[in-house]
Amino acid sequence: MKTDGVVQTFSGRKQSLIEDARRERGSAGGPAGSPGPSRYGDGFVFEEKDGRVTLNVLFALSSEKNAGFFKTGKIFETFEAKLLHIESRMGRKCKNSTTDLEFFMKCEVHSSDLDVFVNSLKRVADDVRCMPEEKVPWFPRQIKDLDRCNMLITKFDPDMDHDHPGYNDPEYRKRRAVISELAFRYKQGDTLPVVEYTAEEISTWRQVYQQLRSIYPSLACKQFLDGLQQLEKECGYGEDRIPQLREVSAFLKERTGFQLRPVAGLLSARDFLASLAFRVFQCTQYIRHSSAPMHSPEPDCCHELLGHIPMLADKEFAQFSQEIGLASLGVSDEDIEKLSTLYWFTVEFGLCKQNGAVKAYGAGLLSSYGELVYALSNEPEYKPFAPEETAVQPYQDQTYQPVYFVSESFEDAKMKLRKYSANIKRPFTVRYDPFTCSVEVLDQPSKIQNALSQMREDLKTLHSALEKLSSS
């Protein structure tokens, strides 16, 4: 860590987020003895299990070929194909200008019959396409599933890290265990636990709060300052008490729909990002060791409550954070690593332009006096935020970042992130349903039609509002 006097950089949370994503990627791959691949003539590789493969078949039948569907069915019967799912819809125009019926079938066939099966379909149907059934990593579909997103990274834990300021303090470690137990017992829907902080813990908070609060007006972005002012007014933010998650979560819920969930330490990259998709921020309740008030090798309540919470009170930033979470659901370990890096250089260490000046919005900066001052000096290099470049930018974990990415605005960053996310390889798109606090996988035409119907109703409401405004 780089030290200037008593001030040290915070480099913990997303450093581990990226490192964990790399470990996930490096350990990817099936176990010994897992089913082998089966290759189809078009170049696709299918996973084979017990001599059978699962594939998705798309094809079209012309209305002039009345017997086409029956012939297709005969092919499935001949090759003992097991139908798992079937959909049909009116299709586009055929070459002969007659109307198609398009079919999507998910089926299971003998791997040895794969080539002959598909070629037989091509003789009786048009536009036959064959794709393997892609294996997608598990991800939460409902907010209650976040109870399973609890994989902790312990490398910076005071019980494991010999360099942790609290490693040789048994009382601190005991206190940490008590607070962590509150998070371990928590289930979605429970009342958020309250921590009765000690005088020593409040003293540590006071030192951090006073030092950072003195430089926020000149270095922090407007959204952060507005959020902090509201928190001081409505949640009792100040130097003499550590805010409770219960009151802060209620505050966020009213403004941006975000809510807090207690966590015992660093989460794995995949689990942490997945929580954001539900507008849930996993938040620690313990505080750093009193011997090092300006440094913590891991996230603590100073980092969370001062760095993250004021920004999550801004609607555009909250939407940006959720977009990263939604983009992470069901993607590969390689893409998790890239999204973790994007998170690091935006939500943790991001800068933005405001009124001709560069301001900080990243939580890692806004909870670290030393790096906040450094980041807005003339020393580091600034680059415009471009997700393709940002996602592969090497990060620095031993000293301050040599490079920071500057966003034109949160709206601009959100649009760029959406464009980047659209190119992430994933066999489906996801949509968050705020009414049920669930994620819907848009992998079937019927689901997309339902989503469009809901959008039409929303547009009708907006159209009605515009009409009333114009007539008033």
UniProtKB/TrEMBL annotation:
<dbReference type="InterPro" id="IPR036329">
    <property type="entry name" value="Aro-AA_hydroxylase_C_sf"/>
</dbReference>
<keyword id="KW-0127">Catecholamine biosynthesis</keyword>
<feature type="binding site">
    <location>
        <position position="308"/>
    </location>
    <ligand>
        <name>Fe cation</name>
    </ligand>
</feature>
<protein>
    <recommendedName>
        <fullName>Tyrosine 3-monooxygenase</fullName>
        <ecNumber>1.14.16.2</ecNumber>
    </recommendedName>
</protein>
<dbReference type="InterPro" id="IPR001273">
    <property type="entry name" value="ArAA_hydroxylase"/>
</dbReference>
<comment type="similarity">
    <text>Belongs to the biopterin-dependent aromatic amino acid hydroxylase family.</text>
</comment>
<dbReference type="InterPro" id="IPR049321">
    <property type="entry name" value="TH_ACT"/>
</dbReference>
<dbReference type="InterPro" id="IPR036951">
    <property type="entry name" value="ArAA_hydroxylase_sf"/>
</dbReference>
<dbReference type="InterPro" id="IPR019774">
    <property type="entry name" value="Aromatic-AA_hydroxylase_C"/>
</dbReference>
<feature type="region of interest" description="Disordered">
    <location>
        <begin position="18"/>
        <end position="41"/>
    </location>
</feature>
<comment type="pathway">
    <text>Catecholamine biosynthesis; dopamine biosynthesis; dopamine from L-tyrosine: step 1/2.</text>
</comment>
<keyword id="KW-0597">Phosphoprotein</keyword>
<keyword id="KW-0503">Monooxygenase</keyword>
<dbReference type="Pfam" id="PF21417">
    <property type="entry name" value="TH_ACT"/>
</dbReference>
<dbReference type="GO" id="GO:0048471">
    <property type="term" value="C:perinuclear region of cytoplasm"/>
</dbReference>
<keyword id="KW-0479">Metal-binding</keyword>
<dbReference type="InterPro" id="IPR019773">
    <property type="entry name" value="Tyrosine_3-monooxygenase-like"/>
</dbReference>
<dbReference type="GO" id="GO:0030424">
    <property type="term" value="C:axon"/>
</dbReference>
<dbReference type="InterPro" id="IPR018301">
    <property type="entry name" value="ArAA_hydroxylase_Fe/CU_BS"/>
</dbReference>
<dbReference type="InterPro" id="IPR045865">
    <property type="entry name" value="ACT-like_dom_sf"/>
</dbReference>
<keyword id="KW-0963">Cytoplasm</keyword>
<dbReference type="Pfam" id="PF00351">
    <property type="entry name" value="Biopterin_H"/>
</dbReference>
<keyword id="KW-0560">Oxidoreductase</keyword>
<dbReference type="GO" id="GO:0043204">
    <property type="term" value="C:perikaryon"/>
</dbReference>
<keyword id="KW-0530">Neurotransmitter biosynthesis</keyword>
<comment type="function">
    <text>Plays an important role in the physiology of adrenergic neurons.</text>
</comment>
<feature type="domain" description="Biopterin-dependent aromatic amino acid hydroxylase family profile">
    <location>
        <begin position="124"/>
        <end position="470"/>
    </location>
</feature>
<dbReference type="InterPro" id="IPR005962">
    <property type="entry name" value="Tyr_3_mOase"/>
</dbReference>
<feature type="binding site">
    <location>
        <position position="303"/>
    </location>
    <ligand>
        <name>Fe cation</name>
    </ligand>
</feature>
<dbReference type="GO" id="GO:0004511">
    <property type="term" value="F:tyrosine 3-monooxygenase activity"/>
</dbReference>
<keyword id="KW-0408">Iron</keyword>
<feature type="binding site">
    <location>
        <position position="348"/>
    </location>
    <ligand>
        <name>Fe cation</name>
    </ligand>
</feature>
<dbReference type="GO" id="GO:0006585">
    <property type="term" value="P:dopamine biosynthetic process from tyrosine"/>
</dbReference>
<dbReference type="GO" id="GO:0005506">
    <property type="term" value="F:iron ion binding"/>
</dbReference>
<keyword id="KW-0966">Cell projection</keyword>
